[in-house]
Specification:
With 368 residues, this protein is α+β, with helices and mostly antiparallel strands. It has 3 domains: 143 residues, 3-Layer(bba) Sandwich (FAD/NAD(P)-binding domain), CATH 3.50.50.60; 105 residues, no CATH class; 91 residues, D-Amino Acid Oxidase, Chain A, domain 2 (2-Layer Sandwich). It has 8 helices and 19 strands. The strands form 4 sheets. The protein has a 6-stranded mixed sheet with strand order 7-2-1-11-19-18. Strands 12, 13, 14, 15, 16 and 17 form a 6-stranded antiparallel sheet that branches. Strands 3, 4, 5 and 6 form a 4-stranded antiparallel sheet that branches. Strand 13 and strand 14 form a beta hairpin. The longest helix is centred in the N-terminal third of the chain and has 17 residues.
Length: 368
């Protein structure tokens, strides 16, 4: 019989989706887990998303088929696990004469998205006439509209899911230390916070998202990975919509989402290069950018007075090529083992639980 491994003492720095997923997976394997969070759980990047569990339709353009396929499987797992906190929705891509991509090319894209989901598909992709499109989306401008294509994806209640994850972790014995800033750590497992002397762990997991590289630099630890930081801003608009929309900017070709949110709608996201010391706020440029795209599609003119709220978050994108176009950098994650230190770079909500299992497997393979 294989020798049973002893429980380990493991520290996780950062309590967003990646950090808590690692903690839950490791606690399920019998390890002692401490999570250190500088502020409160899920208060930064994980709370500033587009509220979607998705494969990433636009990643297909960059040929990231493996990432999309894996994410679509994880999307299905979330829906099965938390049906009351997720909502399967039909997303429409309206097509306008002379300003949109060809309807058949778009349909081929959404059909590929459905095919990649395989047995984890949540619904068929479709092509719609102008009449069908306006019945589902009566607020769209009818002039020049030729129809639409649609596909199925998932909106989530990220606040409820975050609370569920936190309770899962606590129920499995994870010790969550909020408002505990980690001042220093090393590759040998030592860690010091703002409110305690140095503690020693079998492994330390750096799951601090956009701040992962900065923490490594502060502690003079090298990494083979680098990151590009991207600020994504969202608006909450005083406009009631029935179905989610995927809109393409005429200016730069990017797509944004309009998502129903009770009697309002959520609009986002932007992609602006971000420096770690920059304030994480929605700028006027981003606000105008989103409003201009919306106004080119909807039959009412929206201004800043229609904005009920706004928020911004920073996403870390892992460098894995020479590209300088942030829209083409892979949204995949990277996990790096450096002695007793594990660094997580990148990642997203949809694949968070899967990433947690990958980290657990890495620790199992590399522990005595």
């Amino acid at each position: 019989m294989p020798k049973e491994k002893k429980p380990l003492k493991i520290a996780v720095i950062g309590c967003g989706i990646n950090g808590i997923s690692c903690a839950i997976s490791l606690a399920e394997r019998g390890h002692t887990i401490h999570i250190y969070e500088k502020k409160t759980a899920f208060s930064e990047t994980s709370a500033k998303s587009s509220k979607l569990l998705h494969g990433g339709l636009r990643y297909l353009e960059n040929g990231q088929f493996k990432l999309v396929k894996e994410s679509l499987k994880e999307r299905s797992n979330w829906v099965k696990k938390l049906p009351n906190m997720t909502k399967i929705q039909r997303f429409y891509l309206p097509v306008y004469k002379g300003r949109s991509r060809n309807k058949f090319i778009l349909y081929a894209g959404v059909k590929l998205y459905e095919i990649l989901a395989g047995s984890y598909s949540l619904g068929k992709s479709k092509m719609h006439s102008k009449r069908e499109t306006l019945e589902a989306n009566p607020y769209l401008k009818p002039e020049g509209l030729t129809g639409s294509v649609s596909y199925v994806d998932v909106q989530m209640d990220d606040y409820q899911i975050a609370e569920w994850l936190k309770n899962q972790a606590l129920n499995k014995g994870v010790i969550l230390k909020e408002n505990h800033e980690v001042l220093s750590f090393s590759k040998n497992g030592s860690l010091k916070t703002s409110s305690s002397s140095s503690e020693n762990y079998d492994f330390v997991i750096n799951a601090t998202g956009p701040w992962a590289k900065e923490l490594l630099n502060k502690n003079n630890i090298n990494s083979k990975f680098d990151m590009s930081l991207v600020r994504g801003s969202h608006l909450i608009i005083n406009l009631k919509i029935q179905c989610p929309l995927v809109l393409q900017s005429e200016k730069d070709g990017r797509i944004i989402f309009m998502l129903p949110l009770e009697n309002l709608c959520l609009v986002g996201t932007t992609e602006h290069k971000h420096l770690i010391k920059d304030p994480i706020v929605c700028t006027k440029i981003e606000r105008d950018y989103l409003l201009n795209i919306i106004n080119s599609y909807v039959d009412v003119h929206l201004t800043s007075k229609d904005i009920v709220d706004e928020y911004a978050g920073v996403r870390p994108l892992v460098f894995n090529s020479k590209t300088r176009d942030i829209s083409k950098i892979s949204r995949d994650s990277a996990i790096e083992l450096n002695e007793s230190l594990i660094n997580i770079f990148g990642g997203k909500w949809t694949s968070g639980l899967s990433l947690g299992h990958k980290v657990s497997n890495m620790i199992d393979r590399n522990s005595g």
